[in-house]
Structure formats: C-alpha cells, structure tokens
Amino acid sequence: MKNNIIFLFLLLFCSSFLNAQNNNALILHGGAVINITGGAVLNIAQSNPNGIVVTGAGTSYIQSEGETNRVAWHIGNGTGNYVIPFGVGVHGLT
C-alpha cells in the first residue's frame, strides 16, 4: 500500500512534465521519469501507437525494478509499432 501511495505521489509530482493529449496519451517531456514499483500497473488507454510519446531531448523514460510491475497498454484493435520507452537511470540520480 505504501508503494502505491509513493507511486501516486510521484505521478502527481511529475504532472508538470506529463501532459494529456487526445484520448489519454502519455507524453513524457523534459527528462520526466515514471518509476513503477511495488507491483503497480501503469495503464495506457490509447489504441494509437502514439499513446506514449517522448518529446524534447528524448531523455524521459519509464523505469521498472520488479517482475510484478507492468505497463498495460490497452490497444483494442489498433495496429502498428507500440514502443514502451523503458530506461535505466544513473545510480543516485533518479
């Protein structure tokens, strides 16, 4: 439960870096990092391949440190290349 609260706080804190766009797109901008912990699920309700977009310098990413953490991208009947921008932070900086 504590990890879910931390995850929610992280999402709220990073809200200035994340913007919603047409039909629940997730836009990561300006070095934003989403850190999934404690078995959390990041839900993306967007059938378009651009449902997750990295803008700016391209330094934003999603980080997951556990086997039960996941991204659930609900694409329905969508087609195309769906890229989840997973990344790894430098130790001590993220």
Structure described in brief:
The protein has 94 residues and is α/β, with parallel strands linked by helices. The protein has one helix and seven strands, in the order αβββββββ.
Provide structural commentary.
This protein is of the alpha/beta class. It is 13% helix and 29% strand. The strands form three sheets. It has a three-stranded mixed beta sheet with strand order 1-2-5, with no helix packed on it. The chain has a two-stranded parallel ribbon with strand order 3-6. It starts with a helix and ends in a 21-residue tail after the last strand.
Characteristic key phrases:
single chain, 94 residues, alpha/beta, 3-stranded mixed β-sheet, two-stranded parallel sheet, 1 helix, 13% helix
- As a percent range, the share of helical residues equals 10-25%
What is the total tally of β strands? 7
Distance between the terminal alpha carbons, to the nearest Å? 22 Å
Element order: H for helix, E for strand: HEEEEEEE
